[in-house]
Design brief:
By secondary structure, the protein is an alpha+beta fold. Helices cover about 20% and strands about 35% of the residues. It has a six-stranded antiparallel beta sheet with strand order 4-3-5-11-8-9. Strands 30-29-28-27-26-35 form a six-stranded parallel beta sheet. A hairpin with a 2-residue loop joins strand 8 and strand 9. Helix 9 runs parallel beside helix 11, helix 15 crosses helix 16 and helix 16 runs parallel beside helix 17. The protein is globular and about 95 Å long. The N terminus is likely disordered.
């Protein structure tokens, strides 16, 4: 054996051993067999003047650093969002020292990897400028080899105020204005977020504060290598021919290659589906450019027993791991990454529908048409480092517990943390992913476009690995803004042409083109709302992007009575609709003082960021309810909170039920609704907003209602002129057989129904059908209901063994302010016991609460006070004298502790005099 050969054999043996070792010790996500220095941890954060110096946590941000150092209080407390505005106007810098060894310095390449800098920053190492950033959504990799020294080194990241940078960028954009200039005054926000690639809502939104914070918000590290490292792995499975090949798993490996090497870097790249030792591809490769990419395909033939990934409610959320290694031939250096993937197909069906002009707009997953049920996700905190994994999990578990299967990650926030997508994969929550552009025009110069191109490329590769992500969407409402001239873009033909061109450039030529070049496995929509294919036909800005015959629709109407379903647009897909409510007193009191707890307090005004929002909530309430009465102003405030939640729950219930029952029919040319995502799931802080989950995760009444109006099988009662109708909606893929629909008439003064109507029926899955249709007047007459005001109706299903199946629904025949016989009742909490064996995901233990009422009561509300957790049902109509509900606390709780905190009330209790 020649020395050369011996060397090769030895290297091969080392390499093989390394590969198997890599996968043995591989932690869940990634492993780099190269020198790394983790720079996360404690830095020094200083302001521009140098008079404030505090510990700076990385990853983190300046606001939470100042708070931890005791320099400021809770930024969410009372008016602090405005008080602390100076923080975002300063230029902060973060610095620290770190040690470098001689061994590390010997590597040919040494880079600083900044996973996320927020936002405009200059980075120096040992006083040398090594790079700049101006996009919080990008990872930056800076070459620092030449400036490092053995022993102690210093790194400094100097940020520029995002607010000042945006203002400056706007000022220097002299050719034409890029609107809007500033948010409405009620938002108490900052101007020109569209000039900076930063979380748009960090300059304020109509549900959130302006905290344009600064900091190193993601991991930062140093990486040293000699030949090449795997920077990213992008995995997209597509369906095979179904006979010999089940799936083709396309693996793109993005490599950073040593620039110092004069000849191409050679090596072996290997991709493997974990758990299937014989399912791998191995190639000899030559890497030429400093950022080269390799494509490999894993052919999953029918001999491999793989399972598909399904959305919640349709099957298992099976996940696989693809391991990729690169081994350099010259140095034996190994770089490896492990990426999770799920096998599923997604299709956005836009085809003609009989009896309806336009096109359908619905998703098929693994060839099954699915009605998308859910809501819109916004950033969970203004300070991202405060969002823990358990917190994220609780929000997403709450979505699942409310029978949602989809969330839209809205375009004014951030490309979410990996946690969100990981947990969505695991729970089966489909994600409609917006790109981060919202409610604005954008400055489309070459720098901006280049910056965006890089951002899109990185985010598609990161987020696109998740089977949960089923669609890319270019922006929030910018097509609509242009079409309807929200920002004065239509004042002259010349201007209008210009803005349209900019729009197409940004979202079609850059965003969409970048996405298509990377990912052909999912649908790509230019805007939400849009008319889908029709938008494209109209050169990307449709005359009316809200057309009910195409695409998705956003719809807000605070003027009309929300119990009147005829006011709602019968869209193909409702991707936003909503009504506000106040969060619970319990949540609000954490950031306020006793002076604030009245409707007319400055605080109550201050936290409302939507023009006339508080009045709109009360006006909507007045359609059906008398406003709370009483002498104690704080109690009155608390009662108004409760009422606002009742109103919000009823509004969204009515609208969502309308969408769900419209899935199988075309009436007057519209229908086939296949999606209902209300606005909005979660909150960024404690204030009146459209959310169903409060900041902290507490469920508003709406969230309990969502669990019912999104149930897989449910009934809907409504009146269509003189007719009373009940639809049965089923999202099941199987047929319902031998099921009974029960429709009952009740009075407000008895626990016994006046009449029970039943019908046994069979029904196909994935459809909505009318099972009951009678003239209201006749049905009530039959029931001996003397007048509408005295009665209400319930509907529900019984299975073939006559057991209740799915939720019970109810329908009020009059506004409750005019209901006759509706009286104050006495509702009491009886025994509370611990259920030892009952466990719910996310709950520490389960308690059982017994309730008793002296008469029928609408909107029965249980409040667990300071005990965090949720009930199995809440906000319900109680028309039995005794009822049992479960309580699922976040932290384990004793029966006595819950007993002390729990309160119960119903609608009539808010009328105190
Ligand atoms: C929609 C959203 C958000 C906004 C919400 C409520 O248009 O896209 O911009 O917060 O309405 O107004």
């Amino acid at each position: 054996m020649t020395t050369n050969m011996a060397l090769k054999v030895r290297m091969f043996a080392v390499t093989a051993a390394k590969i198997s070792l890599v996968f043995l010790i591989l932690p869940n996500f990634s492993y780099q067999d190269v020198g790394t220095i983790d720079l996360n941890g404690v830095w020094l954060a200083s302001n521009g003047g140098g008079d404030i110096n505090v510990n700076g946590t990385v990853p983190g941000c300046i606001h939470t650093d100042l708070m931890a150092a005791g320099q400021i209080g809770d930024p969410y407390f009372r008016f602090n969002d405005v008080e602390y505005r100076w923080i975002a106007k300063e230029n902060w810098s973060y610095s620290r020292q770190f040690n470098v060894t001689e061994t590390l310095l010997k590597h040919k390449e040494i880079v600083l990897v900044c996973e996320g800098l927020d936002t405009v920053a200059t980075v120096t190492v040992n006083g040398h400028n090594v790079g700049q950033s101006n996009n919080m959504f990008r990872r930056y990799t800076f070459d620092i080899k030449s400036v490092l020294q053995s022993g102690v080194n210093t790194i400094q990241v100097t940020f520029q105020s995002a607010i000042k940078y945006a203002a400056e960028k706007n000022r220097s954009h002299e050719e034409y204005m890029v609107p809007p200039d500033c948010p409405p005054a009620v938002q108490k926000g900052e101007c020109h977020p569209n000039f900076i690639r930063k979380e748009q809502c960090s300059f304020s939104w109509d549900w959130g504060p302006a905290f344009a914070t600064q900091g190193i918000w993601k991991n930062i590290s140093i990486q040293a290598y000699d030949s090449a490292v795997i920077r990213d792995v992008f995995v997209t499975p597509t369906k095979g021919d179904g006979k010999t090949t089940l799936w083709l798993i396309h693996v793109t490996v993005y490599m950073d290659v040593s620039k110092t090497s004069k000849t191409p870097v050679t090596g072996i790249v290997n991709a493997q589906l974990q758990g299937f030792p014989t399912l791998f591809v191995k190639n000899n490769v030559k890497l030429k450019s400093p950022s080269d990419q390799l494509t490999l395909t894993l052919n999953v033939s029918s001999q491999f027993k793989v399972e598909s990934w399904w959305p919640a409610g349709y099957g298992k959320q099976m996940m696989y791991k693809v391991g990729v290694t690169f081994v350099s031939t010259d140095t034996g250096e190994v770089s490896a990454k492990l990426v999770k993937t799920g096998l599923r197909t997604v299709e956005l069906v836009q085809e003609t529908i009989k009896g309806s002009p336009g096109l359908s707009f619905y998703f098929k997953i693994n060839n099954v048409p699915i009605f998308l049920k859910g809501s819109n996700w916004i950033p969970a905190d203004a300070f991202k480092n405060r969002i823990s994994t358990p917190y994220t999990r609780n929000l997403l578990q709450s979505a699942i517990d409310a029978n949602m299967n989809t969330l839209r990650v809205w375009g004014g926030g951030i490309y979410e943390h990996d946690d969100v997508y990981d947990i969505a994969d695991e729970l089966g929550i489909m994600i409609w992913q917006d790109f981060m552009f919202a409610c604005a025009m954008y400055p489309v110069d070459d720098d901006f476009l280049g910056n965006v191109r890089e951002e899109i490329q990185q985010q598609v590769v990161r987020i696109g690995n998740h089977p949960a992500v089923i669609a890319w969407s270019g922006n929030n409402e910018n097509e609509a803004a242009l079409a309807a001239n929200w920002y004065g873009t239509d004042n002259t033909t010349q201007l209008h042409t210009l803005y349209r061109e900019d729009y197409v450039n940004l979202y079609v030529n850059v965003t969409m083109a970048t996405v298509w070049s990377l990912d052909k496995s999912r649908p790509n929509i230019t805007s939400s709302p849009s008319n889908g294919k029709q938008t494209e036909k109209e050169n990307w800005v449709a005359k009316n992007p809200y057309d009910n015959h195409y695409g998705d629709v956003h719809y807000y109407n605070y003027k009309d009575d929300c119990w009147d379903w005829t006011k709602f647009p019968k869209t193909r897909f409702a991707s936003e609709y909503g009504f506000q409510s106040w969060p619970s007193y319990n949540t609000l009191k954490k950031v306020s003082t006793a002076d604030d707890w009245t409707l007319d307090s400055d605080f109550n005004d201050h936290r409302q960021h939507h023009q006339d929002g508080n009045t709109q909530m009360l006006d909507q309430a007045k359609f059906h309810f008398a406003l709370p009465s009483g002498d104690d102003p704080v109690q009155q405030y608390v009662d108004n909170i409760y009422l606002s939640q009742v109103v919000q729950a009823m509004c969204i219930k009515t609208q969502t039920e309308f969408y769900r029952r419209s899935r199988s029919e075309i009436i007057n040319g519209v229908g086939h609704t296949m999606g209902a995502l209300y606005w909005q799931l979660n909150d960024i802080w404690q204030g009146p907003t459209w959310s169903s989950l409060e900041y902290g995760g507490r469920w508003k009444m709406l969230h309990y209602y969502a669990a019912k109006f999104f149930a897989p099988v449910m009934t809907v009662i409504f009146e269509d002129k003189e007719q009373l109708k009940v639809y049965v909606v089923s999202d099941l893929t199987t047929k319902l057989s031998g099921v009974t629909l029960q429709v009952q008439v009740w009075t407000w003064s008895s626990f016994k129904p006046l009449k029970s109507w039943t019908k046994v029926f069979d029904k196909d899955g994935n459809s909505a059908n009318m099972i009951f249709n009678q003239t209201t007047a006749e049905f009530l007459k039959d029931a001996k209901c003397t007048k509408r005001e005295a009665c209400f109706i319930t509907s529900g299903l019984l299975d073939s063994k006559q057991k209740p199946y799915g939720p019970t629904n109810s329908y009020f025949l009059s506004p409750l302010k005019t209901a006759s016989g509706l009286a104050k009742v006495n509702i009491t909490v009886g025994k509370i016991t611990i259920l030892p064996d009952a466990r719910k995901p996310g709950a520490a233990n389960t308690l059982q609460v017994e309730l008793k009422t002296t008469g029928p009561a609408p909107f029965v509300w249980l409040d667990s006070g300071d005990v965090e957790g949720r009930f199995s049902d809440n906000g319900f109509l109680m028309n039995v004298d005794t009822l049992i509900v479960q309580f699922y606390p976040l932290q384990s709780v004793k029966a006595q502790d819950l007993e002390k905190e729990v309160k119960v009330q119903s609608l009539m209790d808010i009328y105190r005099k």
